[in-house]
Amino acid sequence: MLGSRSTLESDLIHLAALRPVPIPSHSPARKHQPIWDRAVTRSMKKSTFLTAALISLAPVTAMAHPHIFVEARLEVVAAPDGSIQELRNVWRFDEVFSSSVVMDFDKNTDLKLEPNELAEVGKTVRESLSDYDYYMNLTIDGKNVTVQKPDIIHVDYKEGQLLMFFAVKPTEKMPLKGKLTFGVYDPTLYTSIDFPTDKELATVGDGFKNCKHDVLRPDADQVISQNKQSLTDAFFNDPTGTNMSKLFATKLEVSC
C-alpha cells in the first residue's frame, strides 16, 4: 500500500539537503527513446528484472498503461527576485517496483540497499531521465520550459518503498507574471505519478503572495468527450501518446 499524505509529509525532512549549487544553464535535447535506456546500456548490463522493465518502455501502443506507480509531492519555490527558483520533488514508489530495484542494486545480496547502493540508484536515474526532463512539465503563458539536471537525486528505502528526493531549476528565467503551470507526469504513461491531495502541489516563498493558485485534476471522461477527434488522430500519428497524455495530467496553475 502506498504511503498516506502524512507519510509523504514526513518524507519532507529530507528536503533540507536539497539545495543545489549553481549548475550550467544547459539541458540536453529530448530524445524519443525508452526511458533509462542510456543508463541501462552503460551501467546496468548485469541487472535482471529492472532491465527488462526499462527495455519494455519502447513505444508500443498496447502497453500504454502504467506499470510503475508513484505518489508524489511538488514544491514550487519562488526566488527573492520574483521568479521561479527551483522545483522540489518527493517520489514514493510502489512496493513491487521498489523490490525489483533492490534485486538489481543489492550487490552484496543482504536484501537491503546500503548507502553506496542507494547512491548508484540515484546516479542511474539522474542520467537516464535527463532526456525526459525528469517528468517535469513547465509552461509560462503557454510556452514550454525545460529544466536543468539536478545536482543529485537522493534515494532512500523505507518500509519496503523506494523514495527519491531532488530539486531542479528551469533552464530559463520564469518570472512570476502571467499564467504558469507545473506538472509532473510520464508522457509515455508507463509510470503513473499521483498527487494524493491538492496540498501535495505547493508553493513556497513570498513571491507567490499576489498570485492565485489552482490544482487542475482533469476528468478523464470529459477530456475524451472534448477531444475525440484529436485523440483519434493522435492514436495514429503519435502512438506513444507523448503529445496527448498531458491532457490527463494533474497540474498546478499559478496566475500572477
From TrEMBL:
Q: Which domain of life is it from?
A: Bacteria
InterPro entries per the record? DUF1007, UCP008159_ABC
Identification of the protein by name: ABC-type uncharacterized transport system substrate-binding protein
What organism does the UniProt record list as the source?
Rhizobium sullae (Rhizobium hedysari)
Taxonomic lineage from the root: Bacteria, Pseudomonadati, Pseudomonadota, Alphaproteobacteria, Hyphomicrobiales
